[in-house]
Predict the structure.
Amino acid sequence: MIVLKRIKVIVPIAMDAAGVANRAQQLPAEFIRPGFAPEFEAVRWGAALGDSYHDTLLMDWTVFQAGITAETEGFSGVLIDTVSDSGLWSLRSVLTIPVVGPGEASFAAAMMLGKSFSVITMWPQWFPLYEKVLSQHGWDHRCASVRSIDTRPDVTELLEGKEEIVFAKLKAEAMRAIEEDGADVIVLGSTTMHQSAAYLQSELPVPVINPGQVAYKQLETWVELGLTHSKTAFPAPEVPMHAHIRKGWY
């Protein structure tokens, strides 16, 4: 009998089942390793677009709320469905199962695949999300540029129905990053952009990183290897407040 390794995937924006299903399409059935079962769950309240420090605070808090009980719920790992890595370090402090964020995972992968990378995203309001992750790890010097197509994102419908316009804009901005900024790897700036990954990889002369998929595969590997984050680096709180945190749902 095969015991499934359940992975909790936390969507940082409150949305209905249809919106969650659109997010889950980034991990098609054939992409998931046998024995694993990712389960997408949206936070119950909080940020709308991740377009401000107001929203990033809410994303950190609500992702933390959603993930704090993952270990007792029987999950083998937690994946945060945003390149902002919202709540990543705080969840590592209260969980012993591995917790992975697409920002850290995709930027680290980009540095392995090339000497410098560029982030291509939907609009400039998301730039602080990448600045936070880059500065947190001291990776700013490996990032050639952060560019946007200046297009308001749809975090539930994603890019569906907008392919002809959005894909061309993304390709054009990525080519500028390669030719003008010296990027030799392109990182998509959001897991909500996953629908463009295959097209861009077929059109661009450098590797294109789909952050949600890269982070998920890294998490599968950690689980299979029996590895998790260091509790020396991410110590547990002496006085945990789990019950009070869960009561904070709105």
